[in-house]
Amino acid sequence: MEIKRDSYLEQLIIRRNNGMIKVITGIRRCGKSYLLFKIFKSYLLEQGVDKKHIIEITLDGIENEELRDPKKCYQFIKSTLEDEKKYYLLLDEVQFMPRFEEVLNSLLRIENIDIYVTGSNSKFLSSDIVTEFRGRGDEVRIYPLSFAEFFSCYDGDYDDAWEEYLAYGGLPQVTQFPQERQKAEYLKNILTNVYLRDVIERNHIQNIDQLDTLLNILASSIGALTNPTKISHTFTSERQSSCSNKTISKHIDWLTEAFLISKANRYDIKGRKYIGANLKYYFTDVGIRNARLNFRQQEPTHIMENIVYNELIRRGYNVDIGAIDIYDKNQEGQRVRKQLEVDFIVNQVNQRYYIQAAYNMSSEEKQNQELKSLRSIPDSFKKIIIVHGTSKPWRNEEGFVIMGMKYFLLNEASLDF
Description:
By secondary structure, the chain is an alpha/beta fold. About 40% of the residues lie in helices and about 20% in strands. α3 (about 70-80) packs parallel to α4 (about 100-105) and α7 (about 160-170) crosses α12 (about 285-290). The radius of gyration is 23 Å and the shape is globular.
């Protein structure tokens, strides 16, 4: 079964022959190699590229152990270039090669080679690409399957697909298991033996219990405002252990560098400035988050918010958490200051959207809660409420767009309604 990943293929196509190193990054097992060696290679062949002009090297395989030597790898690639026509180098898991930066920068001097590489660790963050490849790196970040990609290969209706995605997320391998038990075991195994092991070994972590506890706290608090100091207090009050906020901050950075989690900063809408005190953390894949908690804490409200955040990031938006101060009256009739939250402020070039993710808006109280934040925003950018379900988008009397998750997830341009 082939899972189409058209948006990523398009990103590679528009970068073809641009004179830069195309670096495909993302969490392990999210489909980087499949994208490069199956989807992109098939595209090249369909475009008439001779198979001999596609150089494939997988450095994590034992069959290519010798090519992990940078000089041998460079000489092998150079010896493969038999004519002046364009060659396409597809290099998988390049971090297995010491001094890979020198090798790739040297290959860039050869005019008839177009370079594509994958990597899974912190050397492939955007900020590092500019440094390591002297400004000649061009990142394509890929994620686990979006719901639309997942649904395209799912044998069932939307409701069943949504429940499964809500529980097990979008790692491509998960779609291959027919039984729920197999999906759960795979996710728990890959978290422990691949993701966490990678973080521990790369950063030489000695106190593994601290990392385990931190991950449990983060998994239990997706969608909640927090910071390293608050998490440190949670260590003390709920876990009967201690961990400094400095250590927590460092561990969070490592989890972020491994693409396990993302952080969303908080933005003061009226004051037009970032608020450094609190932020939110989301998991790159909700199945990994659920596996960490042994599938016990299945709060659909918070998981839905995590899925909305991931979808917005995947579509290329810059996403912040919104805060807006208002003055209201308390029960005694006194004027008091309150701070309301807007789930997401979404920016892309000159576009901006304010988004609330509301699993349930059946009660008047819940409707007022979601609408009050949007009503208090003093500008005219589009305001959207995404609700659980399959309802098509519509506008209420205040001009706010309300749409179901199904429409939002399955329509790439859903925010433009």
